[in-house]
Amino acid sequence: MNRFDYVRPSTVAEAVQALGSDPAARFIAGGTNLIDLMKYDVERPGKLIDITRLPLDKIEERDGGLRIGALVTNAALAYDARIRERYPLLADAILAGASAQLRNAASTGGNLLQRTRCYYFYDTATPCNKREPGTGCSAIGGVDRIHAILGTSEHCIATHPSDMCVALAALEATVRVSGPQGDRAIPFAEFHRLPGDDPAKDTNLAPGEIIVSVDLPARGFAGHHTYLKLRDRLSYAFALVSVAAALELDGRTIRTARLALGGVAHKPWRNTDAEALLQGRPATRESFKAAADLVLREAKPQSTNGFKIELARRAIVRGLEQAAAGTPQSQSDKRIQ
Amino acid sequence: MTVQISTAAGRDRFVGSAVSRVDGPAKVTGLAKYAGEFAAPDLAYGVVVSSAIAKGSIRSIDASAAEAVPGVIKVITHENRPATSDNPEDYQDAVAPPGAPFQALATNRIVFSGQPVALVVAEDFETARYAASLVRVDYGVVAPRTDLAAQAPEAYDPPMKRAGIKPPPEPWGDAETAFDAAEIRVNGQYRMADEHHNPMEPHASTVVVEKDGTYTVYDKIQGVSNTHDYIASAFGLKPEQVRVLNPYLGGGFGSGLRPQYQLFLAMLAAKDLGRSVRVTLTRDQMWSFTYRSEALQTVSLGADRSGKLTALRHDAVQGTSSYEDYQEVVVNWSGVLYDCDNVKLTYSLAKLDTPTPGDMRAPGAVTGVYAIETAMDELAYATGQDPIALRLKNYTESDPTEEKPFGSKALKECFRQGAERFGWSRRTPEPRSMREGRELVGWGMATGIWESMMMQSSAHAVLTADGRLEVGNQTGDLGTGTYTILTQIAADTLGLPLDHVTTKLGDTTLAKAPVAGGSWTAASSGTAVMKACRDIAEQAFKLARGMENSPLANADFERVVFSNGRIEVTGDPSKSVALADVLKATGTQKLEATGEAAPDKDFAQQYEAYTHSAIFAEVKIDEELGIVRCTRVISAIAAGKILNLKTARSQILGGIVMGIGSALHEESMLDHRIGRFMNHNLGEYHVPVNADIHDLDVIFVDEEDKANPLGVKGLGEIGIVGVAAAISNAVFHATGKRIRHLPITPDKVIGEG
């Protein structure tokens, strides 16, 4: 861990100014990922900008939806009565991740910006294009059991580790950011990016921008949803595959479907073609299988993670079944419904 | 169960009951200090720079940037390292396997990934850590060999055998011919994963340079004598120049048996700089020494239609390092457990470019018993026998490998009580026949076994005029309850209240005792404490009898009992005298004695000594998604006398949890291209968490054993042995799919296994 400057602005404008165009400056809120990365010598910030005093810790009503301040903690968000009642998919996804202690510290904005959990990214003894562009990807052909099956490139096969973001993708949230050029809104689907030939870049945030809120639209799919997370142990492990499924039904017919996957790609993986396929179809296992097949048509295995393709297929079907039945996966009782 | 203590002077008051840990309050209030926590004036901090490669050499090392950081005192590398002993034997600690032990910074040669290549010493930890990140190393890389399967064809019978580790017995009968002729044959290959110990406390050493030039060393070690003798020989010091302490361990599981490189480096720097130095390893660096090496195992069983074994073969190839021939007992258990006329057991090693593997809770038994007990389950299905009935049919009351009876073996009672508590009779044997909602339910069982050992140990006891007793020796308490059981034994032997007894451990100024390992500590240190206290009892009795108007004047030692701080005539409490009064009246400041314990040679000539267990496991499996939940484990243990029902139960519960980890979760994943364990942190190396653990239950069956006066057989290991087999057998019962490769993760459940 290197020596660094520390500043603590009290307004968003001051924070943006403090960041300026300094490539070595980093915002810090909960620090649940950045501090680890600093200890591992993966991040060596010259300046830490402590944003915990910014007035971004409220959850507010807005246009029938909710505006979640970037500094709302994961715990506060998951246990907020409005979230639990109107967006239980989001609450469930948050509670599927990390530990109680981490959720108490981690912020909403930080959750979006957490880095991959690829072993090689954290281990400075190995080359990694995400950590040091141009050095190569050690994960390809290596210990790649937990790596991506969708949207990979020859430069990077890392996955995005968040559970919360998978739900936000399914809910079509919007990320509001502020920067030197002013404020703008980024649709969630466009916030994270695929690795392509520039895996060092996880998101489409422009230099100098800060996340100020995540906005939820009115539709919360409270009636038919699930967050199903499959992992190597039953808590405190990143997803091998996770599924956020949300449906609106007319009787047995699907009126609207939302489907996003975690643990399979460099970003929360949402496939709108599969959602469109489900629209108007009966909520049956056959329909769900067809959607799963469509989502995974382009899936590509690495040396040891081929099982994730079949696991994802089965998880999509089960997730949609759980959502259709109105029996969401419990995040406290780990028995799968 | 009933508990009786037979040979102490006192009555059983605390021994056998559920006494809470005497060191508990110190631990939960933070008063208990660990090796990396002791302060010293002018303490410097060392941070280890670890090798990025597994094999090759350091071409050059550039520490200039690190040395330029204000606060950095010195960067020690192989280029400027002070001399230590040039005799490799001086680095062989008390439990070292054959070979030339690793010496940190000795040469530019790299023999394992994560090998220390520099120690950065600074005025504070943060500076040392930052400077360590600035050390640049240029390596000449050689392709490493870390794939056991690829190296297995080169496996060899280790020419030098490791002390205390029995090589496989000579074959008897003709296992090959009998197997070929057998009516029923099963044959399977079994694999586990490499596992790391991961005690909560990382390895650390604090070396304090005293004013008189001697060294006080606080080291994470399971027995201070091992550190002491290693330091003295490696650094050419006289024994009296070094004192080693380690009062507490935050878990060891075997990782603290041998002195590790952080100790060597802290001592090297302290001696070189003439000031106190602490070196604490990071969690990631805990993957750079000692681990449970996986083994490639084949078990072939032949039997007649009734299930009686006619042929048993068990072959294992296990990994070791390039520089030592680490060995453990993997295959012998198969020969000890079952009666069979044709048996062949083989064990060989393959060289890998990893650190030397080391003892990890029930070393060898976890590995070998997993294979034989899974194979026995396969045989149960092949012969249509109930798994317990099959084991009873092949039961042996004597050890076939030594042709001697067991001193005690209550395994049948473990089967009976375990099965009854579990409800085994309600099991429908057909695979896939039990179900609950969407989940398949599986019930499996297995036997566990561990050798019951005793080591030469001593203990010292001092009774002072205030009626308080202090006992102690050099051994370590890994968190298992050694402080507590020794306190109980001492209190009962002299009839004192628990709070009048203080136990001290982990200090080389105390009476000699070996490292704590092998489940031998209760028998060894326990007996030594009992003997020391009994000696004091005799001294006190003599003084008491000689007192003026002594109520014990006509009594003899065999007719008195020590109880409630008094010596009283058995059956006549009116004739008694308080211990404290005896010392006061006779002007005695203190009474002291040293007790010596050693294995009973006569007993060992006649008998073999093992602990046994029967483990019953329930799994519930979502087959479609590959998710296995271990919902219930019952372990019935036969381990002689149980000294403390509470700490004993905790020992076994911990073993079961570790066994669940071995069966379902734990796996250190090697990238063979670079010879490096990649998931080197607790986020990615999955030990079980609370959500993975459900109902656990422990039964201690009565077992009387005479290997030592206390009748104890040890508990540290037996709790984990066989757990993985019981779970893997339950997975088969649930799914009909035999997964012969641990851990049983979702990919294996939904895939080819």
Automatic annotation (TrEMBL), chain B:
InterPro entries linked to this entry: Ald_Oxase/Xan_DH_a/b, Ald_Oxase/Xan_DH_a/b_sf, Ald_Oxase/xanthine_DH-like, AldOxase/xan_DH_MoCoBD1, AldOxase/xan_DH_MoCoBD2, AldOxase/xan_DH_Mopterin-bd_sf
Membrane spanning residue stretches: none
UniProt domain Aldehyde oxidase/xanthine dehydrogenase a/b hammerhead: residue ranges: 29-143
Protein name: Xanthine dehydrogenase family protein molybdopterin-binding subunit
Source species of the chain: Methylorubrum rhodesianum
